[in-house]
Amino acid sequence: MLALLVWQGVALAIGEVLILPTPLAVLARLFTIWTESGFWGAVGLTVLRIALGFLAAFVLGVLLALAAGRSRVVETLLFPYMAVVKAVPVACFIVLLYVWLSSRSIASFIAFLIVLPTVYTGVLSGIRAEDKALKEMADVFCLSPVRRFLSVRLPQLEPYVISAVSLGTGLAFKSGIAAEILSLPAGSVGEMLYYASLWLQSVDLYAWTVVLVLVSILFEKLAVLLFRLAFRGIRNV
After folding, report:
1. b/e map of 170-185 (b: 16 or more CB within 10 Å)?
2. Whether pLDDT at 140 is above 70
3. pLDDT at 165
């Protein structure tokens, strides 16, 4: 509430809607923007692209972390690649990929690239932090590899995986939208943001930004909930 009051005060002090619209103007636009043709299609396509990139990064990140957890050689070989992905600015990747991929695919690939090191690092940290006493207990009781993984390793990895999912969804949206703004796939939220800025439609620009924030939060909460339910279901097997 305090932030909205500050926003309102600054907007009134500036007195220029092109520079900073009031929160009331943006709120009023939010009540109409979702009724316009193409709104739900743009949101749906953008979320789908980002979700695909996130899921691909999650699956590969977990697999690579498990491999690195078993072998220091694999971890050493993967280190320079993960370091490069984390260090290179997103805009550089977008420009490079624009030569190789269609504009419809760049957002998914960028989300994949940015989330991959996050998932990999998070899961690998969980593997390195596993309790050795529990491993010895599993050996004493001669648990099968499947039961050992489900009963011993997975519960210890859960907080690290959930943390990686929570952080990764936010990064996926930030990088995916940046990719859409630069690559301009037709009918995307990134395209809507770009043209709102180009045509100096400040109210629309802020309204779309609010929509993105809400969708990003919803996506994160839903993803975390689904993973928590998945872990709970696995524990009950």
Report:
1. ebbbbbbbbbbbbbeb
2. no
3. 95
The pLDDT mean for the chain works out to: 88
Q: Contact, 79 vs 64, CB < 8 A? A: no
pTM of whole model > 0.85? yes
- CB-facing half-sphere around the CA of 160: CA atoms within 13 A: 21
Residue 178: name the closest of 93, 118, 235, 115 by CA. 93
Lowest mean pLDDT, pick from 34-38, 90-94, 112-116, 149-153: 149-153
HEC string for 103-119: HHHHHHHHHHHHHHHHH
Distance CA 214, CA 223 (A): 14
Res 1: pLDDT: 72
Q: Give the rounded distance of the alpha carbon of 74 from its chain centre.
A: 26
Give the up-direction half-sphere exposure of residue 207: CA atoms within 13 A in the CB hemisphere: 19
| Inter-residue contact 150 to 234 (CB < 8 Å) | yes
Q: What is the dihedral of CA 237, 116, 161, 50, to 10 degrees?
A: -80
Q: Structural domains in the chain? A: 22-31+61-235 (1.10.3720.10)
With a cut of 60, say whether residue 138 has pLDDT above it: no
CA-to-CA dists, residue 59 to 26, 66, 123, 139, angstroms: 38, 11, 11, 28
Sign of the four-CA dihedral 210, 215, 218, 220 = negative
pLDDT per residue over 101-130, tens digit each? 888 899 999 999 999 999 999 999 998 887
